[in-house]
Write a structure and sequence with these properties.
With 183 residues, this protein is of the alpha+beta class. 51% of the residues lie in helices and 22% in strands. The chain has a domain at 51-157. A two-stranded antiparallel ribbon has the order 1-2. A hairpin with a 5-residue loop joins strand 3 and strand 4 (118-122).
Length: 183
């Protein structure tokens, strides 16, 4: 048990990196720059997922809550058709979950407003770019591995234990022997 916990902590502290292949275009100029020819070039882009902040965990859970699967319908005779419908319904959401995990707290960009007050603005453009990239490049087998690792990185056990510590009826609370009487 201790070895498992230490491996999980090492994974959380180190983070995970993965890469995807994408296509970008180089511009080749011909005839003194009058004609431009675009040449597709395959590039590898590397991303890192680290332990999410509470805000990132909140954004991830907002996406996870929207995913619903009826296991009984998947086991029915038309289970394959139902599985395809799930792909149609949740493929982009899965790519968005990976994007949120990759962005982490960088999703919020600090902006200085009047009087030196710092406001945070969501980087919706970067989120949309990464969602599009991952929906084009991540395969189902890689998606499964990434989601497993994201779930491990979320460290939900420590989060739930922290909430338990804040409960008013926890087991370490002092037990009153006598009740206060309003006499």
């Amino acid at each position: 048990m201790e070895q498992e916990k230490s491996e999980l902590n090492a994974l959380i502290n180190k983070g995970i990196t993965f890469e995807v292949k994408d296509t970008e275009f180089d511009v080749k100029k011909l005839f003194f720059g009058l004609i431009k020819k675009r040449i597709p070039v395959e590039v590898k882009k590397q991303f890192k997922i680290e332990e999410p902040t509470i805000g990132t965990l909140d954004r991830l859970s907002a996406e996870w809550v929207e995913i619903a699967i009826d296991e009984a319908k998947l086991k029915a005779n038309d289970g394959m058709q139902r599985a395809r419908a799930l792909v149609n319904k949740h493929a982009i959401r899965c790519a968005k979950v990976i994007s949120i995990a990759v962005l982490g707290s960088d999703y919020l960009i600090p902006k200085c407003s009047k009087n030196g007050v710092v406001r945070y603005i969501e980087d919706a453009e970067r989120l949309a770019y990464l969602t599009d990239l991952f929906s084009r490049t991540v395969k189902p087998s890689t998606l499964y591995q990434l989601i497993l690792l994201i779930n491990a990185m979320c460290n939900l056990g420590d989060f739930v234990n922290s909430i338990r510590l804040m409960l008013s009826d926890r087991s370490t609370m002092p037990v009153r022997i006598e009740e206060n009487r309003g006499d």
